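Support reply, case 0932

Customer input (verbatim):
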Amino acid sequence: MSRTFTQIFYVFLLMCSFNFVAQAQNITVSGTVKDKQSKEGLAGVSLTIRGQSGGTASTANGSFSFTTSAKVPFTLVASYVGYGTVEQQITGSTTGINIEIETAVVLGGDVVVSASRTPERILESPVSIERMSAASIREIAAPSFYDALNNMKGVESSMQSLTFKSINTRGFNSNGNTRFNQFIDGMDNQAPGLNFSVGNIVGITELDVDNVELLPGAASALYGAGGINGTLLMTSKDPFKYQGASFQYKTGVNHVNDDNSSVQPFNQLDVRLAKSWNNKFGIKGAFSFLQAKDWFGNNYTNFDRNARTEKSGTRESDPNYDGINTYGDELSQNMRNVAQSVLATGTATYIKNYGLATGGGVPTQAQIVNFLSTNAQTRPFYLGINTPGLIPNQNVTRNGYQEADLVDYNTKSLKLSGGMYYNISKTVQATFQANWGTGTSVYTGSDRYSLRNFNIGQYKLELKGEDFMLRGYTTQERSGDSYISSVLGSYINEKSKVSQAWFPEYVGNYVGARSLGLSDVQAHAAARNAANSASTGGSAYFAPGSQQFLNAKEQIMNTTISASDPSKGIYGAKFDDKTNLYHYEGLYNFTNLLNKVVEFQVGASYRIYDLNSAGTIFDDLNREIDIKEYGGFAQIGKKFFNDKVKFTFAGRYDKSQNFEGRFTPRVTGVFTVAKNNNIRVSYQTGYRNPTTQNQYIDLSVGGGTQRLIGGLPEILTKYNLYNNKAYTDVSYRAYLASAATTGAPNPAVLQQYNFDARGVRPESVQSYELGYKGLVLPNLLVDAYGYYNIYKDFITAVDVYQNVNGSFVKFGVPVNAEGEVKSYGAALGLDYLIGKYNISGNVSYNEIGDLPVNYINDFNTPKIRYNLGFGNKEIVKNFGFNVAYRWQDQFYWNSSFASGQVPAYSSLDAQISLKIPSVMSVVKLGGSNILNKYYFTSYGNPSAGAIYYLAVSFNP
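Our regenerated output:
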């Protein structure tokens, strides 16, 4: 498949070379563009001819020059971030043109594409949409444009590390949110194997962002499967419109007043270069490198993984302590079960040896009892089991390691992107684009994953005209040296002393300590100290930072999971993912052919997921797994009553090889009640296929205490879950608790879980929305909406326990919730201009309805959150500022990694800037969370404090 892309790329280059030779006669368009007030030349102003691709950008002194095949008369368009657009008719000479532009902020004047896949004024969008322009990106106070997405109406995020954030809207937030789509220049930005969007780790660089558009809610009718909670589209800059060299250097600090670390440096360098020739051929390249110390995961709250809830106690007070951000302490054993296991093994060994010594004889029960009660290896366990209350019905865990001991917090992010653009004609452009990035970060899924040298490449070929688009791209994911933190912690313990020796040593020494008269607390402390010491069973506990610890850590994190062989002392925590995605799509807009009587467009797509994890994530150790999907859509729109009313109807059909086909319709209406005032109504549907992991994952997590498996029938059959039925987690906990009263667990309380014969299936949503957007006053923009969502076959997960040869194995399996899940909400946004001051604010409300029985509530969204903004890009000459404040209510977070309360928090971002026109530069001093109130956005993830920075930009 990659060879095909290479061949197409060479054809592209050949086509460009032929067209260079065959260029038509061109004319030169040149002149100067200035600031209307200061009369100074402006650099970086985009100059284009209306109706044509290509153009140029002004130089340092404001001059511009480019060639075109257009004939006069034509309209020359000058646009610049933060300035009003000027259109000038050229009827005579095309040289010596003088253009003056002035600063302007026009509320509601943005043009958006994503809402209908065709350009339209944002005021006339048929659905809710948020937009961030290049001008607003220059003014943000947050360290990056991606961080500033939180300021948009209804947007929330889950921050898993400094460079890893998951964006979401309208509820059901999650780590690595798979219900929210992200696209960069039309390319799906989700890692095809690891199932998270990587828009803020690799891909587009800030200097190359032209605009960001965000659609809250379902958008499957236009963009296919996924995105049932929202879609984010990021568009990079055109090298014909944005030419020249730009760079930005940002330096700062974080970890201020952090108990986990001293103050740490934060540095980032961005560079962009773009050039075009003769309005025909353009190239661009962008580079970004960030280096910093990541935020620390330091939630050491005791956690009950069976009940998925917090519990009281510390390592000192709870023998069964399992800290959220400590790893290696997940494996839990019941002390009485351990004693019974030792006695069973001792009995079997004695009977075998007795038979060998007597020529096949069988010992009596009295002889067996005499052996168990007198043998040094079994005596403590026999005494403990047969002395009431001596061995408690108590679970114990091994000592774990804090996340900081295991995870690489040296954050790095390197992004490289480039493109070649060729204007075949006035309206047809061919593009080759490549985005590649690598980095070190931390991601939260069902575990905490240390992403080391993780990289993704995206490579695209596109042919686009005024009425059509053909696109093909591939996403190449490489996990690098990434590993699972809990597996690493558990396996370091196994390297020091295997659990089959550690737990019996603990129980045996506990019995001995109690026999000497020590209290329960003292006996547990003595037992742990003995089990963690060197013995015939193994070495002493590897202290963090010791050479033994470092050697074990290095070996385990560089050995793949599938290569583990405990019988040989080989342990691995590394996953080896090389999954690829291949996607092809096309679109044709018939509107012009139909003389604009109606707006009509159709499109189709085809994609292949090529899973390659060598058995470290998927069930692909001994087989190849490909997933094929295809779909098509059509949309028709028509304006009525003197363009006062517009109705649009859209529908899409999609089919995945593992699931039945789905049809998703969309109906929208926009009603102009007054100039620049519109009411919108929409009915949208969306659906999401189970992710590649939902379908085929086969992975041990939680330090080996749980196996995550896919929900397809073939995976359920592999583990015999249809025949040897597992038990619900609720009944399993009741089973364990019953031992406290009966002395042994009561099997009668166990309840079987019945998996659907169809396996996991796509989930769907029906979304109803009523909204208003308009200029109440020339300087006051209001945007409000309310929505109501109905989810069906909602994909959630269950934990079940299967009895395999007398031992219970815990599985985590994706399933579809029975019944319907409903959610609803509303939002209001205001933008108000007072002179050059911009005051903005928005508030959003989200709520979940009644839940089906046994559904685990993972709405993970605060009821109320709001943002406030205040800024002026030039309060006095060349000086500007911007302030952004956000607050959100407390809420309960539920995930497969951890569950708990997320407290309410607030954060204040601010920046002041100085423009230096003589050198086309801007100096910005700012920070995020400048009051340095540490907070976390999702339970089990790190708390973030302030980042203070100084940025110097040239030709931004």
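We compared this against your earlier run and they match. Two observations from our side: The chain has 15 helices and 52 strands. The chain has a mean pLDDT of 91. Please reopen the case if you see a mismatch on your end.
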